[in-house]
Each structure stands twice: as structure tokens, then as C-alpha cells.
Design goal:
Mean pLDDT: 94
Order of helices and strands: EEEHHEEHHHHHEHEEHHEEHHHHHE
Low-confidence stretches: none
CATH architecture of the largest domain: 2-Layer Sandwich
Number of domains: 2
Number of strands: 11
CATH topology of the largest domain: Cytochrome Bc1 Complex, Chain A, domain 1
CATH class of the largest domain: Alpha Beta
Shape: globular
CATH superfamily of the largest domain: Metalloenzyme, LuxS/M16 peptidase-like
Largest sheet: 6 strands, mixed
Number of helices: 15
């Protein structure tokens, strides 16, 4: 075997990920099971449809979710932490645009004990004032640290300039917003959203019949305000007219540069192929932006481009940090790369490299039972169909240089990109 010759990369033609088994608990909660584990561990994700989009004031959804582990009618915060630790369970609480997530990893042999704690957290939280104050104080400190970072300031500024203040993305959190959070504010959000009529459950790992029975016994009867139906909300968004928005940070050693515009959602038929274009443009280490702006020009250590998603839109984003004096030339190079994509079809060699990278990423993303669970949760919360993965594979395999050029001309528009800079003003 000659090790100087690179092995031929095999084309990935068929890509199947393990299909979930879906059922419904007696109280109507959808249950999705991904049985794919060798280890005697199970992961349970409990989702409630209630996030930033549904809150009546800033931070309400985040802290409602965060406070679930801080004390219930049965357990104090210390007891919850001790018991989970003793059983070797891991608990994670998170909140997003439209959903709250309670994720717990448990050894199968201790699942019953773990479920007792999780059930109490979900059905009878207390939102104790003392614990809430401690958590708010910690978060305020973190907020103050973040506001000294140019990347944080630029991102906030971009969202506000693209979406406006009537939209959840544009409602920027300020320090005073933390002081308006009280137990009653959280309790109100909890009562509206944390009930069996607003819930879905995902089980992954080594899921046995006993696992399903225990989860059904725990969460299969109606709980909370289960008849309360929340309407689907939509918000207007309006961009500011300015092309460039500057946030001054006088002591900044570097400037953060964000360039962005609103774009299509994941459901749009163009999206799977647009993903290929964005990867080629700035989505991996060998991308156009990295090759030019990092490797050739040395303006930055890293620059990326991609699409972030919110319930009602996508946001096309170019993001980097650079020395203050390189801001202008760096922005011009981004535009130069957009012009190239408009004017010249990409070579088959470059397209093959991007394709191989994306196919490799797809394979790596669905290797473990828990990453499979993430994939199916993503499908459920994004409103996508089960054939999304095969569509994505087809798009990566079939896209042509002419299609990439066409997508660049339609979606990568210099005129619509806002330029947001946070850093030191150079006179």
C-alpha cells in the first residue's frame, strides 16, 4: 500500500437515520422513542411549547425554566441536587424561542427514583424568592461581563437593527429587566405553559418496555392547566434604514464585525441547497472567507458565515473580530467574495471538497443515540417533515456550480447586508 496516495473518497448515496417510534400517552402527550443505545442509560427530553415568543416580559421564559430545580413542595434545591448526584443522573434546563426543555440522563436502574424528582419539579415547583434572587444576582454579573465584549454588543445591535423593537429578536435585554422578575411573574408563565396539553416527550438510549411504562405512569395523566390552549403568535419585523450601525467601545483592542440580513426559513425549498452555498462561502475551515481573509490577508483568526433561524425568519450572518484598523478592508473583502460568487461558477474541485465535508458532518451528526434524539427533536420543533434528512443529502449530492451561482445572486446581496461594528472608533 502506497501511503503517499490519498485514498479515494467514497460518495455517500444512501443515508438513513433510525426512524423514531411515535405514540401518544393516555393524556394526549406525544411520545417519541429512539431506541438505539448499547449502554444502560436513557435520556428523557420533556418539551413545553413556551419560550421567548410567548413571554409577556423579557427573561420570563428563561427564569421560569431555570427555577424548576430550585425547590418544589417535596424537595429543596439542595435535596434535588443531592439526589440526582446520588443516582448518577444529569439534569439540564434550557429555554429557546418557542420551547422550554427539561433534559435528564439516567441509569435505567435508577430511572424510577429520578422520575420522582423530575415529576415534582415539573408539577409542583415553588419558585422560592431567596433562590431566585441568588440566581438573578449571578446572571446580572454575567450580563455585565458580556456587555464588555464587542461580539456580544455587535450581535445585539444587529438583531435590533434587522427586526425592530416590536419583535422578540429586537427586544434587547437590559440590566433593569432582571429586576422586574419576581416569583409571581414566573408562576404566571408556568401556569400558562407547563401543562400536559402543551407538552411532548422524547426518550432515547436503551429504552425498554419498563422505561416506557414508568414514563407513562408518571406523565400519562393530565396535569396543570391542561385545557388551556395558547394561540400561535406572529410578530412584525422592520429593519432600520441605516446600512452601517456602530457601537462604540473605547477600550476595545479589537472590533467585532457582523454583516447580516433576514432571509428564508428552513421550510423554503431553496434552503437545502442554500446551505451548501453558505458552507462554501464561510461555513468551514476551507471556506472562501477563511482562505481569503484569514489565510491570505491575515485580518482575523477566524471568520464564519451561515444562517441562524427564528420561528418566522432566517438571518444570514457573517461574523468575525479583527484589529480596529482592518475593519474597512475586511468588509471590502467580504464583498469581493460575494462578487466572485455572483460572477464565476465554482470549480467542480471546490464543490467536491465542500460536498465531502458536509457529508462527513452528516454522518458524524447522527452516530450516537443522543445525537439522533437531537435530530428528531429538531424536526419536531422546526415544523419539518421526516424526509428532511434525505432531502438534505440529495441537495448536497446534486447541486451544480450553476445553481450555486444562481443562489448567490438571489440570496447573497451586498445591498441588503447591514454592517454592524462594535469597537473603538478610529478617526
Amino acid at each position: 500500500m502506497d501511503r503517499t496516495i490519498q485514498p479515494e473518497i467514497q460518495t455517500l448515496k444512501n443515508f438513513r437515520i433510525l426512524a423514531p417510534v411515535r405514540s401518544t400517552l393516555p393524556n394526549g402527550i406525544p411520545l417519541t422513542v429512539i431506541n438505539a443505545g448499547e449502554q444502560d442509560v436513557v435520556r428523557m427530553d420533556i418539551l413545553f411549547a413556551g419560550g421567548r415568543w410567548q413571554q409577556s416580559q423579557k427573561l420570563q421564559a428563561l427564569f421560569t425554566n431555570r427555577m424548576l430545580r430550585e425547590g418544589t413542595t417535596k424537595y429543596t434545591a439542595a435535596t434535588i441536587a443531592e439526589k440526582l448526584d446520588y443516582y448518577g443522573s444529569w439534569l439540564e434546563l434550557s429555554s429557546a424561542s418557542e420551547y422550554a426543555y427539561i433534559t435528564v440522563y439516567s441509569l435505567n436502574k435508577y430511572l424510577a427514583k429520578t422520575l420522582e424528582i423530575v415529576e415534582s419539579m415539573i408539577k409542583e415547583p415553588l419558585f422560592p424568592e431567596k433562590e431566585l434572587q441568588t440566581i438573578l444576582d449571578t446572571n446580572i454579573q454575567q450580563y455585565l461581563v458580556n456587555t464588555s465584549k464587542v461580539d456580544f454588543l455587535a450581535h445585539r445591535s444587529l438583531l435590533k437593527s434587522l427586526y425592530g423593537e416590536q419583535h422578540p429578536c429586537g427586544k434587547i435585554v437590559m440590566e433593569e429587566d432582571y429586576h422586574t422578575i419576581t416569583p409571581d411573574v414566573l408562576r404566571n408563565f408556568y401556569e400558562q405553559h407547563y401543562h400536559s396539553g402543551n407538552c411532548s416527550i422524547f426518550l432515547s438510549g436503551k429504552v425498554t418496555e419498563d422505561t416506557i411504562r414508568r414514563v407513562t405512569d408518571t406523565f400519562g395523566v393530565p396535569f396543570g392547566q391542561h385545557q388551556l390552549q395558547m394561540p400561535k403568535l406572529s410578530f412584525p419585523f422592520a429593519a432600520v434604514p441605516e446600512k452601517r450601525i456602530f457601537t462604540e467601545r473605547g477600550d476595545a483592542m479589537q472590533s467585532a464585525v457582523k454583516m447580516g440580513c433576514t432571509t428564508i426559513t428552513r421550510e423554503h425549498p431553496d434552503y437545502p441547497k442554500l446551505r451548501v452555498l453558505m458552507t462554501l462561502f464561510g461555513g468551514y475551515f476551507g471556506s472562501r472567507l477563511m482562505s481569503n481573509i484569514r489565510e491570505e490577508k491575515g485580518y482575523t483568526y477566524g471568520i464564519s458565515a451561515g444562517i441562524m433561524f427564528y420561528p418566522d425568519s432566517g438571518m444570514l450572518l457573517v461574523s468575525t473580530e479583527t484589529d480596529n484598523e482592518y475593519v474597512e478592508p475586511l468588509i471590502q473583502e467580504v464583498y469581493h467574495e460575494i462578487d466572485r460568487l455572483h460572477q464565476e461558477p465554482v470549480s467542480m474541485e471546490e464543490l467536491t471538497m465542500v460536498r465531502n465535508y458536509m457529508l462527513g458532518e452528516m454522518c458524524r451528526s447522527y452516530e450516537s443515540p443522543f445525537s439522533l434524539s437531537d435530530a428528531w427533536i429538531f424536526i419536531a420543533t422546526s415544523g419539518l417533515t421526516d424526509d428532511y434528512f434525505s432531502h438534505s443529502l440529495h441537495a448536497v449530492n446534486e447541486i451544480t456550480p450553476a445553481e450555486i451561482q444562481d443562489l448567490a445572486q438571489r440570496y447573497l446581496c451586498k445591498e441588503t447586508l447591514k454592517e454592524v461594528i462594535a469597537g473603538k472608533k478610529l478617526s
